[in-house]
């Protein structure tokens, strides 16, 4: 995609990632709800919702399944799939070329 691997949550707001991110909808997935809840702990509730509104502009697809984003990124459909680490490890064990990356601020 011509951009470096993001190292922070704010890096995901970079327009270079527009259309390259897949994440489950927090309204449909416990995985993504956990992410949003963790962001509220890191940023405060208002900050998390403001961040998420900007972030959503870069998201190409909101799935209903929390494990789907990791699988979709591993299969090359998107550059970034936000999932639990164990979902990515399943893809790695299947031999797919995907990396696990954690934001420097931490994860939920």
Describe this structure in words.
The protein is α/β, with parallel strands linked by helices and about 110 residues long. The chain has one domain: Periplasmic binding protein-like II (D-Maltodextrin-Binding Protein, domain 2), CATH 3.40.190.10. Helices cover about 40% and strands about 10% of the residues. Strands 2-1-3 form a three-stranded parallel sheet, covered by helices on one side. It starts with 20 loop residues before the first strand and ends in a 15-residue tail after the last helix.
How many strands, what sense, and barrel or not for the largest sheet? 3 strands, parallel
Oligomer: single chain
Tally of separate domains: 1
CATH class: Alpha Beta
Mean pLDDT: 94
Question: What count of helical segments does DSSP give?
Answer: 4
Order of helices and strands: EHHEHEH
Major sheet: arrangement of strands: 2-1-3
The helix content is 25-40%
Quantity of strands, as a count = 3
**Which parts are unreliable, with pLDDT below 50 for 5 consecutive residues or more?**
none
Straight-line N-to-C gap: 26 Å
Approximate strand percentage: 5-15%
Radius of gyration: 13 Å
The CATH fourth-level homologous superfamily: Periplasmic binding protein-like II
């Amino acid at each position: 995609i011509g951009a470096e691997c993001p190292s922070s949550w704010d890096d995901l707001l970079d327009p270079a990632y527009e259309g390259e991110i897949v994440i489950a909808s927090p309204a449909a997935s416990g995985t993504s709800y956990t992410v949003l809840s963790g962001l509220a702990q890191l940023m405060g509730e208002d900050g998390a919702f403001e961040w998420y509104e900007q972030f959503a502009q870069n998201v190409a697809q909101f799935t209903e399944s929390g494990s789907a984003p990791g699988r979709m990124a591993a299969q090359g459909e998107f550059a970034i799939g936000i999932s639990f680490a164990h979902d990515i490890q399943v893809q790695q064990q299947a031999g797919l070329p995907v990396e696990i990356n954690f934001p420097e601020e931490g994860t939920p």
